[in-house]
Amino acid sequence: FCSVTALHLDRPHRHAMHRRTQHRLVGPPRSRPASALAALAAAVAAGAVLIGTATSWTAWPGASTSSSVVVGVRGRRHASGSALAAARRLSSDKDGQTGPRRSEGSWRGLPEIVLDVRPPAAAGAGEHWRAPGRPGAKELRILRGALAGDEVEAVRSAVQCTAFEQEAEGSTNPVRTPVVVLKSRGHWTGGFTVDLQRAVEAAVEERIIPYMREVYADSSLVASEVLLRRYMASAKAEHALHFDHHAAATCVVDLAPLPSSGLFVQPGPGADSRMFVPLDTAGDAVIHGWDVFHGVKLQSGHERMSLIVWAKPEQDATSGLTSWYRALGDSGDVDAAYRLGVEAEEESRDMTTAMRWYSLAAEEGHWMAMSRLGRLSAEQGFAWTQRAAAVGWADSQVDVGDALQQAGDHAAAWDSYRAAAAQRHPAGLHRVGVCHLRGLGVPPDQVAARDHFEASARLGWADAQFALGQSGLAGDGEAEKEAWLRAASAQGHPAAA
């Protein structure tokens, strides 16, 4: 066993993070020759474990960044440079092919990077929220080569003969991109997807799921849903921030990665904390729990395809439930309390219970809970809203703008809406579009109104889709207007039906 450890504190900025670095070769000492350890030492000296020498995160445009970012690393890390190349050559298969060494069906030995995505204390996040004590909590893991090169090619080959389907009419999934469902409620679908299933089944069942079971210390986890999703940059370049609340854990294997494009995370309340996930090679996987706030943004021309695995305890996979939240909430878990509040508000319509859960989370600095509580509480509601808006939470910036607009302070409302729109918040973009259209706090400008409506509509905001369908702002006339009305209607917009 060989280990190198370091503690690094980024230079001060609003969302400073502590990150631990660890690099190890998995396996007993006798299985690693002295030459391997020497090559590893040379690789470390060249910066393989990123101790103050490289940046794994790719900063969101306009975000605060530090001079170096240190993350946890386990396993062999592929990197440039002769020393790193020598280290990689030591992991060659017996036939001389370079690549990650693995026993059949095992993830052990693959390069693994662990990124700390805790909410920042500088934004008021309490320690019970930042360190909930759950295995794998507030971590984002990268498993290099989760699908080997030949497996990636097998998927690409099978895709050529597979028909992708659009999201079902009336689906609550806001992504609405072409998909192929390979497994549903714990059962492989077979049929016309059988070639794709063959290409990924071993990786999912023998590599990804065992890895998740170990990371999250839950032997009952199974692949509940498996699908292949395709993002066409011309049609869907963004997926707004969200949680995968329906899954205990998520794995996304990127089959066409590009730097500064694709999956990003947002640990803090504002867009200045967003970071693209550093995926290098087709077949790299990202694994995270239900508590990681993330989205997708593509560069122009990037056609992204990803294999998605949603894991749950087996009883939840077959029933479609999410039973893990209640026990966690009862134990004081802040993220679970917030989720239970959402379920009480949106599913059972029990506002008293929702406020109780939101209050528990809000007291720990949970800005999303503050925002929800602000909408429900008659007594202290606006104070919670203002508190969340002050730390940069865009939902609350929109709510503050709405309150100011109703009070007749259009200039102040414009400022609050604009702060939310600057974070690519769909409601903030829509409100800015309305201000431009009606001249509220800003001179009327139909071009700017259309641009903001379109940006909001492409993020799935039904009000913006309806506005484009009803107004004369749609660029391509009646056909485009009808398309936007259909999109709004599919999301249940009452006036678009």
Summarize the structure.
With 497 residues, the protein is α+β, with helices and mostly antiparallel strands. It has helices at residues 34-45, 82-89, 127-130, 149-159, 194-215, 314-319, 324-330, 334-346, 351-362, 367-376, 381-390, 394-406, 410-421, 426-438, 446-458, 462-470, 478-490; strands spanning 3-9, 18-24, 58-59, 72-74, 112-116, 139-143, 179-184, 187-188, 221-231, 238-242, 249-254, 262-265, 275-276, 285-289, 294-297, 304-313. The strands form three sheets. It has a nine-stranded antiparallel sheet with strand order 4-5-6-14-11-16-9-7-8. A five-stranded antiparallel sheet has the order 3-13-12-15-10, with no helix packed on it.
Structural class: alpha+beta
Bin the helical content. 25-40%
Sheet having the most strands: 9 strands, antiparallel
Q: Within the largest sheet, what's the order of strands?
A: 4-5-6-14-11-16-9-7-8
Radius of gyration, in Å, reads: 24 Å
Shape: globular
Quaternary organization: single chain
Could you explain how this protein is built, in words?
The chain is α+β, with helices and mostly antiparallel strands. It has 17 helices and 16 strands. The protein has a nine-stranded antiparallel beta sheet. A five-stranded antiparallel beta sheet has the order 3-13-12-15-10, with no helix packed on it. It has a two-stranded antiparallel sheet with strand order 1-2. β7 and β8 form a beta hairpin.
